[in-house]
């Protein structure tokens, strides 16, 4: 074989290898308190649709985790995922206190094929450790709920969990030079503060954190037109907002301003300019399409939308369109 022909073969082989590497999906774990608000649902839809992620497990946290697992399975099914994707309720106590809303047509625990076995409280943490050991730097973990199961995994086998490729969190952080700490003004971190401290202390010197803050979500509000194509979703958004209005009317009015007259006559939902701030979906988009966002760097770590002066969104309509495309697949 001539040197020229050999060189051509090597170039072709390298091109094939690079193509397959580029086309390979990223193995991920999702930790979610789905069933509390609509953006976890949108996040599941985006994670399934963007063709960037291989979802190895969905771990439900935040309390009432069996029902959250049922809801997660429901939306994985709607997104076209089969039952081979494990849905693992975190059965450890103290992971959160919010109530899970379960739609009437949600399948039973048995029909939802939840991963529940004799390991009990340790199961979710054991699965994180197992997958971290298998995939190491290839593995990413997305935390869009309280961090209890990840903290337990860090306590059980810190040297294994420290080998993962990245940790993506929807929340806020405080920055001290190249070091970061959780900002408990954000719900996901506030719900289990002890767990958040363990995760930040154990991982931040070894694992890149990717943080998506609330100010990015505020810059890309979604209207009813943006979500109307998703089966059953608009009615569920209305239910979530009704629960928020009853439970915390001040927060509801701050996020979704509407006149008292509209609340009294029952037309408040129709009158809303926007119905969802896509906190969690933007976290997945920021990893799948980082070019859509303006990132701040803090040593190993990056954040988007961590404060009102740095929303991290250069073109809200482009991102909104990407969300529509991702949830239309």
Summarize this structure as a short list of keywords or feature phrases.
single chain, 329 residues, 8-stranded mixed sheet, two-stranded antiparallel ribbon, 16 helices, alpha/beta, 46% helix, globular
Write a structural description.
The protein contains 16 helices and ten strands. With 329 residues, the chain is α/β, with parallel strands linked by helices. Strand 9 (296-298) and strand 10 (301-304) form a beta hairpin. Helix 2 (38-49) packs parallel to helix 15 (279-288) and helix 5 (148-156) packs across helix 8. The longest helix has 21 residues, at 3-23. It starts with a helix and ends with a helix.
SSE blueprint:
Blueprint: H1 3-23, E1 26-32, H2 38-49, E2 53-60, H3 65-78, E3 87-89, H4 123-135, E4 140-144, H5 148-156, H6 158-161, E5 166-170, E6 172-176, E7 179-183, H7 187-190, H8 193-203, E8 209-212, H9 214-218, H10 224-227, H11 233-247, H12 249-255, H13 260-265, H14 268-271, H15 279-288, E9 296-298, E10 301-304, H16 316-326
Parallel strand pairs: 1-2, 1-4, 2-3, 4-5, 5-8, 8-10
Antiparallel strand pairs: 6-7, 9-10
Helix pairs in contact: 2-3, 2-15, 4-5, 5-8, 11-12
């Amino acid at each position: 074989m001539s040197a020229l022909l050999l060189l051509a073969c090597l170039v072709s082989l390298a091109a094939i290898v690079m193509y397959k590497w580029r086309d390979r999906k990223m193995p991920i774990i999702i930790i979610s308190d789905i069933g509390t608000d609509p953006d976890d649902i949108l996040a599941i839809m985006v994670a399934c649709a963007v063709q960037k992620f291989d979802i190895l497990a969905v771990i439900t946290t935040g309390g009432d985790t069996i029902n959250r697992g049922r809801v997660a399975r429901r939306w994985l099914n709607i997104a076209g995922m089969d039952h081979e994707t494990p849905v693992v309720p975190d059965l450890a106590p103290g992971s959160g206190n919010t109530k899970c809303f379960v739609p009437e047509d949600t399948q039973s625990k048995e029909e939802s094929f939840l991963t529940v076995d004799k390991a009990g409280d340790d199961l979710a943490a054991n699965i994180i450790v197992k997958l971290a050991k298998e995939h190491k730097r290839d593995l990413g973990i997305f935390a869009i709920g309280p961090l209890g199961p990840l903290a337990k995994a860090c306590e059980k086998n810190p040297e294994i969990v420290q080998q993962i490729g990245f940790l993506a969190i929807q929340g806020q952080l405080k920055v001290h030079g190249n070091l970061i700490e959780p900002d408990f003004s954000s719900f996901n971190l506030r719900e289990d503060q002890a767990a958040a401290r363990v995760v930040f202390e154990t991982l931040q010197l070894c694992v890149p954190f990717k943080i998506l803050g609330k100010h990015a979500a505020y810059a890309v509000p979604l209207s009813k037109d943006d979500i109307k194509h998703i089966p059953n979703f608009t009615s569920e958004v209305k239910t979530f907002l009704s629960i928020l209005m009853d439970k915390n009317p001040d927060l509801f009015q701050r996020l979704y301003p509407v006149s008292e007259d509209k609340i009294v006559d029952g037309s408040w939902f129709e009158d809303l300019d926007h119905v969802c701030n896509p906190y969690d979906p933007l976290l997945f988009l920021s990893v799948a399409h980082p070019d859509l966002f303006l990132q701040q760097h803090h040593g190993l770590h990056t954040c988007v939308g961590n404060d009102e002066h740095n929303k991290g969104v250069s073109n809200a309509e482009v991102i909104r369109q990407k969300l529509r495309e991702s949830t239309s697949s």
